[in-house]
Amino acid sequence: MSSLFPSDAIVTMSEVAEPQQFETFEETPPETPVVQTEEHTVVAQPAELPDIKLFGRWSCDDVHVSDMSLQDYIAVKEKYARYLPHSAGRYAAKRFRKAQCPIVERLTNSLMMKGRNNGKKLMAVRIVKHAFEIIHLLTGENPLQILVTAIINCGPREDSTRIGRAGTVRRQAVDVSPLRRVNQAIWLLCTGAREAAFRNIKSIAECLADELINAEKVSLLFFYLNMIFQSF
């Protein structure tokens, strides 16, 4: 009986090729480059980080927060420096975390009031950029410093609270916490700019620039001071 397979097609187990073995290489971290000379060995230092400027123009290195109590609540220098006031951080996820939000971004977020302006952050960023350019043309100073000084000047230092239950309520004078001073200052600046730009030929960027300059100079044209004097 003849075989179904030809004799030359039969392969023994010894002739079967063993599976190919691949060499494994462990990934090693890159080493610091070392330059060797005849006299001594020099270790190459990493390049310095570039200077972070807001909108590519305004540096925050020379910005000074004159009020010691607000230095921890006005985030503008060092690790809080940004190219744009649009970091998409989750600063509202935890209590008091908004104090770590860059101060220019807090101003930008406050401009997104009221309902018809909700979510239009690119428009708010454009308004802030235009306002800063106007401030630089009018004063010749760093707009970041103007903003910081304006927030320090227009934040209320004293307020009143309600003491007692319903029926017998009286007002008690209290000190204002540093975080609330910053919050109130930003709200007053944006509210003044918004009301000044309503039904006015001037744009809101121009009104915001005027509001910041007047607050920095403690001028009576500032919205908060004008509102106080009109109440008397």
TrEMBL record:
Signal peptide residues on this chain, from the entry's feature table: none
The entry's keywords: Ribonucleoprotein, Ribosomal protein
Coiled coil start-end: none
GO molecular function, a single term: structural constituent of ribosome
Small ribosomal subunit protein uS7 domain: residues covered: 82-217
BP GO terms, sorted: translation
Gene Ontology cellular-component annotations: small ribosomal subunit
Ribonucleoprotein recorded as keyword: yes
Gene3D superfamilies from the UniProt entry: Ribosomal protein S7 domain
Alphabetical list of PROSITE patterns matching this protein: RIBOSOMAL_S7
PANTHER family, per the entry: RIBOSOMAL PROTEIN S7 (PTHR11205)
Recorded family membership: Belongs to the universal ribosomal protein uS7 family.
Protein name (database record): Small ribosomal subunit protein uS7 domain-containing protein
